[in-house]
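subagent[fold] <- orchestrator: predict structure for attached chain, return tokens only, no commentary.
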Amino acid sequence: MGKKEWLKRLPMDLLMDIVGGTIFAIGLNCFASPNDIAPGGVSGIAVILNYLLDAPLGASILGINIPLLILAWLYLGHDFTLHTLKTLLVQSVIVDSIAVYLPAYSGDKILAALFGGVCIGLGISLVFLRGSTTGGTDIVSRLLQRRWPYMPIGKTMILVDAVVVAASMVVFRNIETGLYALISIFVSGSVIDTVMGGQNTGRMVLIVSDNHTAIAQGIMEKMGRGATLLNATGAYSGAERKVVLCAVRNNEYPRLRELIKQCDPQAFLITTNVNEVLGEGFVSLDAKNLT
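subagent[fold] -> orchestrator:
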């Protein structure tokens, strides 16, 4: 992504980071942490560290992500790393400075797990919609997928969450704490899947444009996605032209639409939701068979 494009997107990206970070912080500070619920992943580790060492939640989340960000910078690209770092900085500041003044819920722990999961899932989803991530397991999954393309990533992430939940039961000395955490993880995952349209779903996009070459190059270079040029003939004019075909994740679509708009504001765009996208850049076909 060019510097001008990045600066143009920055205000809306920051706004979504702030809104998403605030909702996430409400779930973590008001519902999860006060009730000793470790909602899996880096957030769950932060809750455990907060209990043991009184370490700030936001600073813990950022600190745990630093080595992951270094690996992401080396192997996943600078754009991805900078977007994630921006989101993590905003999220950490909100968690440690704003959300701490919100009242902690101390009622029914099932309600705490439910509402905590909803808030955490919704907060993360809003960040995903702008093409960014909150680091943690998202970085881990991409690194593992890069190193071992056929590894069943979904099961690996479940294993990571299971380890965090098991550790929380030991630390908090309460089996029910782990059960509440599982509820929270399930709810947050369901919210993310609902908002984003599912983990392996995506969008198939057909683009009719005289600037098809520039659009295809932009998709490959700026988004890291593949593009296919299809031969087409206009039914009315009989003119030969090219149609760009590509598949993207739901959270990448706003970025793709903006890219197309910059290349050709008059482009004709056809978008359809697809239930499953498999192959390079997504979940591999062999990995799907292993899950």
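orchestrator: received. Logging for downstream: The first helix runs from residue 3 to 32. Confidence is low (pLDDT under 50) at residues 287-291.
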